[in-house]
Each structure stands twice: as C-alpha cells, then as structure tokens.
Amino acid sequence: MAIPARPLSPHLQIYRWQISNTLSIMHRLSGAFLGVGFALLAAWLMALAGGPETYGQIMRILRGPVGVVALSGWTAAFFFHFLNGIRHLFWDAGMGFEKRQSHLTGWLTLAGTVVSTLIVIAWVYK
Predict the structure, then answer these.
(1) Using an 8 Å Cβ cutoff, are 57 and 47 in contact?
(2) DSSP state of 125
(3) 64 in the Ramachandran plot: left (φ > 0), alpha (ψ -120 to 50) or beta?
(4) Are the C-beta atoms of 107 and 101 separated by less than 8 Å?
(5) Which CATH topology does 19-124 take?
(6) Rg for the chain, CA atoms, rounded
(7) Does pLDDT of 87 surpass 90?
(8) What is the pLDDT of residues 54-75, one digit of tens each?
(9) Distance, CA of 116 to CA of 75 (rounded, Å)
(10) How far apart, in Å, do the first and last CA atoms of the chain sit?
(11) DSSP state of 64
(12) Pure H helices in 1-126
C-alpha cells in the first residue's frame, strides 16, 4: 500500500501568505543584517583610531555608491528592527493580537521604517 504524497503541516500550500509572517522573516533578516553592519561600524572606528590616511580610505568607500547603499540598508534595517521590536513588546504585554490591530501595526511598522529611513538619508546626504 502506497503512502499518499501530501505536504507536511505547516506548509506554504496550506497557509495564505500574510503580513505577519512576512514581517517575522524580515525581522530575523534585519537582525542578521544589523550584525553585519556592526562589523562595518567596528571597521570605521578602527579606521578612525588608525589616523587620517586610514580614515580617509574607509570614508571613500562609505561615500561611494556601495557605501551609500550599504549604509542606507543598514539604516532601514535598524528602523525596521526597532519598530517591529516595539510591536513585539506590545504583543508580550498581551496587546495587539486581534487581526485588524496586527495588520495595522504591521503596515505602520513598514511605513515608519520607510519614512524614518528617508528622513535620515535626506539629513545625512543633503
């Protein structure tokens, strides 16, 4: 007798994709990206301690296109992780579990991330 091929639960074919699982995945990815960004921060601090020549080298990289994209992504990851962390703190307190509140806070987290990131980028690269 053959065992029928069926997906294991939970499975992407069973559950509809929602903002909550998207934000959960993004929260983990942003945390990992922040960890990589802290290595960049450490390199910048070491270059600062290394003197003007070393500092100038790393600043040329950070002011170039790759540096601007990396720093902008790190800023977005910071704001997303921060705002979604506040959302999780409310959940830890037993608030915001209703479907409407969960969706609203998820979208507010994304909107807050975009607005905050754009404000910082505009301020830094004026």
Answers:
(1) yes
(2) T
(3) beta
(4) no
(5) 3 helical TM bundles of succinate and fumarate reductases (1.20.1300)
(6) 20
(7) yes
(8) 999 999 999 999 999 999 999 9
(9) 9
(10) 70
(11) S
(12) 19-50, 52-63, 65-92, 99-124
